[in-house]
TrEMBL record:
GO biological process: adenylate cyclase-activating G protein-coupled receptor signaling pathway; cell surface receptor signaling pathway
GO molecular function, one term: G protein-coupled receptor activity
Keyword Cytoplasm in annotation: no
Biased composition (Low complexity): 994-1016
Record organism: Oryzias melastigma (Marine medaka)
Keywords: Disulfide bond, Membrane, Signal, Transmembrane, Transmembrane helix
Membrane topology (UniProt): Multi-pass membrane protein
Protein name in UniProt: Adhesion G protein-coupled receptor D2
InterPro entries: ConA-like_dom_sf (IPR013320), GAIN_B (IPR057244), GAIN_dom_sf (IPR046338), GPCR_2-like_7TM (IPR017981), GPCR_2_secretin-like (IPR000832), GPS (IPR000203), PTX_dom (IPR001759)
Disordered: annotated segments: 994-1023
The Pentraxin (PTX) domain, residue ranges: 113-319
GO annotation, cellular component aspect: plasma membrane
Amino acid sequence: MAGTLLTALMLFLFKRVCDGEPTVGGPDRVTDQHGTNKLVYVTSQWALQLVNDSLPFSRANSFCRSQFSSLLTLNESENHEELLELLRQAGLTSSIWVGQSPKPVAPSKQYFQVSALRFPKESREGFAHVNITFPALSAISVCVRVQWDQDWNEVSTIFSYAAPVFTNEFQLRGQLDVQGRVLLALIIHGKHLPYKASFPNDGAWHQICVTWRRSGNHWAIYVDGEIKDKGSGTDTNRDIHGDGILILGQDQDSFGGNFTEPFFGNITDLNVWNMALESRHIRALNSCSTLSQERLFKWSLDHISSHPAVKEVQTSLICPAAYPQVELQDCWTLQGWTNQLPAWSQTECSNLLPFVCRSTKERYLRMKQITESQSVRPSAFMNQMMMLSNKSQPILAQQPSDLNNLAQASVLLNISAQALDHTPPGELEPADMVSLIQLLSLTADIPAQPPTRLENSSQDGVLELSQHFVSVADSIISEDNTLKWQAIKEVVNGPMDVVKSIDRMVTHLSPRLMSQTDQLTITSPNIKLEVQQQRLQEGSKVSSFCGPDTESHTHLDCISVPAQKIQDLHSNGFYKITLVNTWYGSLRPLFNPEENITMVPTVTDGSQRYLGTFLGSSVVSTTVLGDDQPVSMAVNFQLQHRVENSLGTVYDPVCAFWDFDLSPETGGWWNTKGCMVVSRHYGYTVCYCNHTTNFALLLQVYEAQRSPENEKALQVLTFIGCGVSMCGLLFTFILFIAVGVPKSDRTTVHKNLIVALGVAELLLMCSDWASDNKAACFLVTALLHLFFMASFSWMLVEGLLLWSKVVSVNISEDRRMKLYYIIGWGVPVLIVGVTLAVSVDKYKAEDHCWLNVQTDTIWAFVGPVVFVLAVNAVVLCRVVMVTVSSAHRRAKMLSPSSASKMQTFDLTWAVTRPVLILLPVLGLTWLCGVLVHLSVVMAYVFIALNSFQGLYIFLVYAVYNSEVRNAIKRIKEKRKALSFTNCSQPNSFLHSQRVPVSSWSRSPPTPSSPETSETSGANSSTSMSLVIKNESFRKESFVSFSMKQASENQVVQLTAFKPSGC
């Protein structure tokens, strides 16, 4: 008989309720092998399953969850017509459960000073008499708060009511059992009911309520708001006699006397009603709420007469405002339909009603497919189950009410764990996975009553159940089953469903698990579970919980509750604390890496390219129970980075938790609300979160643009380049002023560009020193913005000036310079001013002196720069086209026979030379910044070209500029002439001053010399010039790009500046 029961209990799990259900729209009735009718209505989106097996609301909700569906809720109006048809086809006229139950809220406790009566052990005569007259009662409720003396273990009477005609009319008794719990029993009309209800003898206050009504002789005992024992059908069906005496702390073997069973401890808050209170009333009283129902007696010492041994004391009564798992309201039901509209009502959540589970159509069909495949071909795991149970039938129909106690669950888990031990890794089939996950979900929701003397369950049995539970869960979330999780992802929300089941299981069983110990640890290859419990007092703190140590990691995964938060619990009136800590080491591979976690990148400065976010650590969880009730508290935790660093990849850790409420239909998702990174270290990260749940590290993946060594090298190169560039710009500006370079719009533009770029680079070099001062950093940011904008504006002017030379724009120099000044200085001032006015609060970056790249402010710089570079690129293209066409035309005019012989190299050099000279001046080297993220080489090229931009300008405008060289030569010749003390022909000096190029004439270039001069005759057979003349310049101020032909000694010149030779 026992073997048959064991096999039946073991096998029931593996038959799904969806067997034989329809897959098309409309209801269909099917009958399982037990004759139980089931009905499912499948629409285009949903599948509604009517479970005509009456359960309490919590069990109904649990069963739907185990089927990977949810209890049909009130707000799902789109299913009203389908539900009406489903109920009509089923012929169901009774009410059904609908969700949702009142949402739990975080508990809070408060102290209330109340008067109490102390019954000391020094006297066995102590009692208290309630001075009221009782009428005959057809129903009665008595609620009282007691504090049991922990050293007293004999039978005690909390209160006794005796009538003149019958002494043992109504009495509440208690006694200590061998496990240290206080057992309670009622005496009604002289009949002694069994000791079953209980509470721990922990020295704390406990609320006890007893109710009775003549109709049906129903009675119940509640402890701390929860029903602990109930029954009906006592022998005598009559009222409780009136005119009796209510005594506290003693029994009454005679009317009003003969006390033999004293109570020792404290009593307060006694209240009596002439009605049987309902469960919701008891729960409200436990939270110190006030009932509207009129009382026969309200606690007041003015109406109580006490024995001299009984002392009146003041005590602090702890009242929970709201417990998370206590429903202060009734649960909702669908009572019927009125005019095709649903009629809702509320009733006791403990009532037994049928219900409807709702799931998506896709999930329902996939579930059916998986279970049907198991029916046709049993898996290796199922064969192992059959072998262990000596049965040949692998499938037995499941009923929602089959698994309703811990003994049955323990048997199933034991057999499942044995079968898993004999099943090779990775050999579980999808149907096996689904069945085991359902078993864990159903087991986790079984309520665990405190042990009594009449139960065979003990702590060892509950511990064994927990160990089997963890063992089965470990096998399910093993990395070997990664592919199986992908196969069942349409049915099961994911591995976090298993995590949630473990949390619920330990929370429900913690009173039983910790009844004889203060610490408990259960370990498996992928899971470590630890439960700590202690009584709260001043200076209480709990130790940190860490995952298992491994040889490959020096830092452990740890989580802890701050000591101050523990003290806050004690200050708020909590008596004991229980911490449930769990570590999961194999969840990371089970999350599909292709399903990228959507999250805003934390690095947005453009230095790294964001690739995605994924789970990068183990998962740790903490559940805090204050007086066995869940409490949300802040935690600190550190987690290792479980990822292999690959070359060119950077990981930025983000502290997160799994939020089951974020996306209920899919089982939740990662959330970062309330969590922050405390510190980052190599290989691990320390986090803080202001609540308790399941935590992990999400790693944001970035493509590394450069290594720290390269970053340092680039910084040094930038600093050196800016220093050299500033020196070059300074020397160039001094030369323009000191040597007497002829004034023109061209030289004026050069000078403004030099000033703007020089100041900008000076500010850039000083920006690091200003970053510590907020005001100074803001000022430096604005000035950097202004002068870099001015630099690019004058680069634009350089391009416009060059364009005017190429296309001969007919505009006077004065008007042109006014326009250039407006563009060069007016536009930057306008842009910076408008930007500051519009976004002054978002103008500067947080950690350095530059524009904020995380807002649109950066476009106040990037936008104009892109425009300048685009215009100058067009100008450069036009210059190259003119240069090439001029070279061809002049070569054809002067030597037609050789024009066709121009070699490719010479033509390429004719194009390349002006490009190399003009790129820095026009700012086109900044285009390399677009390619910086592609390669570190491009970063070096970008820094070299732009940080040394001043050096390029110095070389082009000073070292190789014929105007500067000629001006220096004139100064040298003047000084040389003045050194002659006996000079007889001063006119020769004046002549040499008026003809600055005479030295070129005295030394004409040879065919092998690259040097060119505008004094070369137009009819020379060895050189030529293309000169676009600026009428405002003197003849000797012409500047050119030159190119010597290899065969003809030809030179191509373009007016812009005049290098003297290369």
